[in-house]
Amino acid sequence: SFYFCFAVHANSPAVDALRRIVRKYELLQKKLFQLEEAEGGFDQFTRSYRTFGVQRQPDNSLFFKEWAPAAEALFLTGDFNNWNKFSHPYTKKDFGKWELILLPRHDKSPAVDHNTKLKVVVHTKEGERLYRISPWAKYVTREEKSVIYDWVHWDPALPYIQIHPRPKKPTSLRIYEAHVGIASPESTIASYTNFTTNVLPRIKDLGYNCIQLMAIMEHAYYASFGYQVTSFFAASSRYGTPDELKLLIDTAHSMGIMVLLDVVHSHASKNVEDGLNKFDGSDSCFFHSSPRGDHSQWDSRLFNYSSWEVLRFLLSNLRWWMEEYRFDGFRFDGVTSMLYHHHGVGTGFSGDYSEYFGLQVDEDSLVYLMLANHILHTLYPSCITVAEDVSGMPALCREVQEGGLGFDYRLAMAIPDKWIQILKELKDEDWDMGNIIHTLTNRRYGEKCIAYAESHDQALVGDKSLAFWLMDKEMYTNMSSLIPMTPVIDRGLQLHKMIRLLTHSMGGEGYLNFMGNEFGHPEWLDFPREGNNQSYHYARRQFNLLDIDNLRYHQLYAFDRDMNRTEDKYGWLAAPPAFVSAKHEGDKVIVFDRANVLFIFNFHPTKSFQGYRVAVDVPGKYKIKLDSDMVQYGGHGRLDHNTEFFTEAQPFNGRPNSMQVNISFDSTKVIVVELLLNVIKS
């Protein structure tokens, strides 16, 4: 009988999952051993940006190195040799490597000047002659009338030296997701310098302690939002120079703000002349051959994570951004696509273990992610890595030593989808409190999540920001504080604040906001393209709206700022998950406590409540610390903040204590009110 029970258990999905977890950890250990044997360890291996591409030697000679296994011959051409295609051949080495040394000039200066153009000339076995940008190029630019980017040798005489230390890793992570190019009210591409001067002070004032920078890795197509990368080691030149990006990060560090790079290692642009695709003339090189190497929905190429040189390239890429620019970590894009052979296309995830540990899992990419996280967290203990995964892969955010993938956080991607669904499909009186709470709390135990009400995805053309879903066209005419609020504006302002605070306080162990949404940015986001006549009108953030005192945008800004500052003081993001004591469907009231802070939300569109009993864990005296109904936040100021609330030893809704509060508002208006009460222990 015992043997039979054991046999059934041994073949259960949970045990099969455990076997596969052990297997992937063994594969990681094998890869680490191979790195030690072949490369002297991962430290040297991940510094390959110091040997590949172009390197200036102490005597000012230039050393060039490329990996092009399918090439018949390689040559270097450029401004330095008047674009002679044959005068400077590379020497073929083992394992598909090619090397070239350019001796310094007679005056001992380098043979290639700073800020001059270069090309790799690739001769294929089929007799083709191809012109390529080095995959390791650190700076690429595009002339105004050209569509192709050029490799530009970047070697300034006096490079910018960052002076400020990295900030300490925060216990409560509050992320400001930002795009440098749209960070201005002007209908143009904004610069690194503009971001440093005009945006960083706003982020600091708002209380965010981390910035997630999008679209930094060079991408030829601006409208790709940075997700069709062409040059992996080059910071986008459309915003300025590498030194200006270094100054941006250094300035953020001086403010105590960490900076994460939105890194795209899940796929690459199909561009040939200025991308990685067909670098050596073959269909593979850095990628799987077709069809495995093609992503049908993204129209892009997929990396071959089993290739030694691809691992060198990608792991060194992570190290480059950490060392050269001193980023503090990464948000890994497209992790779901990496984890599965089906890339998440046409596949739903119910949570069953068979969905995460079967043959559909791509072990090569999974081991790559484990390797990346192991190396990053070993070399940089304060490094933060965030996974964009919609599948819910178990142990994604557990340490590698535990058999996990090693990420610090995953994005809680179901939350913004839920808010958009509610606003699109339901009347206020039909909101389901239990369903909202389920979405906000449905996460794997012991794996940290970044909660967000909306990100850049929700702002893109075809969708709208939360503010625009709530208030739509009235934002053009009725946002003035000099006129009475219309019912639409009143409802929109209050719900905007409540949705964000509920997400912030209940949805995860970190919080993310996309720039501009903190003040209810109107409209949507759309990059210049053929479909909009190359317009920049929607590819900007209208920070100027905050500078007009009689517009209500600054009221939403003030609430977002004080929400972050209140969290910074009481630390609910670093606390265990919330204890929900009430989710009353009839009253539309949600009550929960977290980090000794009591949250009360009244989502009812018409009802106010007097003497409403709420459950409390810690006995004592409570006072209001944050109130969305305050006038400076666009509310009506109906609550007396001098009121003190005293608990009674009366058990209620699973807590040993309770107290009565008033949740009142003008019932003739579509108003919602929330209270945040901080306990003062007696």
Can you walk me through this structure?
The chain is of the alpha/beta class. The chain has a domain of 100 residues: Sandwich (Immunoglobulin-like). 26% of the residues lie in helices and 21% in strands. It has 15 helices and 29 strands. Helix 2 crosses helix 8, helix 4 runs parallel beside helix 5 and helix 6 packs parallel to helix 8. The N terminus is likely disordered. Its EC number is 2.4.1.18. One of its GO terms (biological process) is glycogen biosynthetic process.
Mean pLDDT: 92
Molecular shape: globular
Classified in CATH, the superfamily of the domain at 577-676 is Golgi alpha-mannosidase II
Task: Please report which band the strand proportion falls in: under 5%, 5-15%, 15-25%, 25-35%, 35-45% or over 45%.
Answer: 15-25%
How widely separated are the two ends?
58 Å
Helical percentage: 25-40%
Named at the architecture level, the CATH assignment of the domain at 577-676 is: Sandwich
Tally of helical runs: 15
Strand order of the largest sheet: 10-11-14-17-18-19-20-21
Low-confidence stretches: 1-8, 666-674
Number of strands: 29
- Biggest sheet, open or closed, and with what strands and sense? 8 strands, parallel, barrel
CATH class of the domain at 577-676: Mainly Beta
Q: If you consult CATH, what is the topology of the domain at 577-676?
A: Immunoglobulin-like
Structural class by helix and strand composition:
alpha/beta
Radius of gyration: 27 Å
Protein name: 1,4-alpha-glucan branching enzyme
Pathway: Glycan biosynthesis
Enzyme class: transferase
EC number: 2.4.1.18
